[in-house]
Amino acid sequence: MARTAEIERNTAETQIKLFLNLDGKGKCTVKNPIGFFDHMLSAFCKHGMFDLSGELKGDLEVDQHHLIEDTGITLGMCFAKALGDCAGIYRSGFFIYPMDESLLQASVDFGGRPFCVCNSQLTNIPLVSVSHEGKQSSFQTDCFEDFWQGFVNGAKCNLHLDTIRGRSDHHKMEGLFKAAARAIRAAVEIDSRRNGEIPSTKGIIV
Questions:
Q1: In which element (H, E) is residue 185 found?
Q2: Which residues does 88 contact at the CB level (< 8 Å), separation at least 6?
Q3: Distance of CA 24 to the CA centre of its chain
Q4: Residue 129 pLDDT grade (very low, low, confident, very high; cuts 50, 70, 90)
Q5: Nearest Cα to 9, choosing from 86, 76, 85, 83?
Q6: Which of these, 154, 176, 156, lies nearest to 166 by C-alpha position?
Q7: Alpha-carbon distance 50 to 31, whole Å?
Q8: Biggest alpha carbon–alpha carbon distance for the chain
Q9: 35-48 vs 65-83: helix axis angle to the nearest 10?
């Protein structure tokens, strides 16, 4: 049985459509107007072995917050829908990811109660990049936590993200996306010993 989900979320501020395959090959083909954010979603898919497609549109003339947060919410909703009652999965996962001078940690539990702790230790100074054509773009680093807060609200999971050490904001954010991907991958994989049972002493994930 395919563990997939498609969610379309439209508001006056954003229009987001995503299709998720939990058991994919790590392909991300999302039309994303924010360059660094596209890089993060691609890294998330590649390291989590999730396939993600769709399109993101939003009021970037205001700032990046609405689109990034709402994408997190929508992606979380995709995970919740694809997991259903969570029968047979490991449910929790943990990973420490080294990235150059940075060391990042992620812990997740798909236990039905959303809670996000984000100790990213970012400077909140926007990242600025210049393309080969000389066009300048930026990423609002203060939206990083907004994405993950939106994700846990949509997925109804408990997620802790911690920078153990690091200097570069780029490395911290990318390493945390990769650590989260590996932790989430471990949590949503099927546990062959569980024989399809719901991983909770309550008998239900709430």
A1: helix 169-188
A2: 190, 191, 194, 195, 196, 197, 199
A3: 15
A4: confident
A5: 76
A6: 176
A7: 16
A8: 57
A9: 20
Q: 182 and 106 in contact (C-beta within 8 Å)?
A: yes
**Tokens 């926007």 — which residue?**
126
> What residue has token string 């099927």?
190
Q: How far apart are CA 96 and CA 138, in angstroms?
A: 28
Q: Which amino acid, residue 144?
A: F
Instruction: Specify the pTM.
Output: 0.96
Asked if 196 contacts 124 with a C-beta cutoff of 8 angstroms, the reply is: no
Q: What counts of helices (H) and strands (E) characterise the chain?
A: 4, 10
Q: Which amino acid is at 94?
A: F
**What pLDDT, on a 0 to 100 scale, did the predictor assign at position 186?**
98
What is the Cα–Cα distance from 156 to 75, expressed in whole angstroms? 11
Q: Tell me how far apart the alpha carbons of residues 125 and 139 are, in angstroms, rounded to a whole number.
A: 9
Helix (H, G, I), strand (E, B) or coil at 51: strand
At a CB cut-off of 8 Å and minimum separation 6, what does 35 contact? Answer: 129, 137, 139
9-68 per-position pLDDT tens digit: 999 999 999 999 999 999 999 999 999 999 999 999 999 999 999 999 999 999 999 999
Q: Which amino acid is at 22?
A: L
Spatial CA neighbour of 172 closest among 128, 114, 118, 92: 118
The whole-angstrom separation of Cα 26 and Cα 43 is 9
112 Rama class: left (phi>0) / alpha (psi -120 to 50) / beta = left
Give yes or no for a contact between 54 and 14, defined as CB atoms under 8 angstroms apart: no
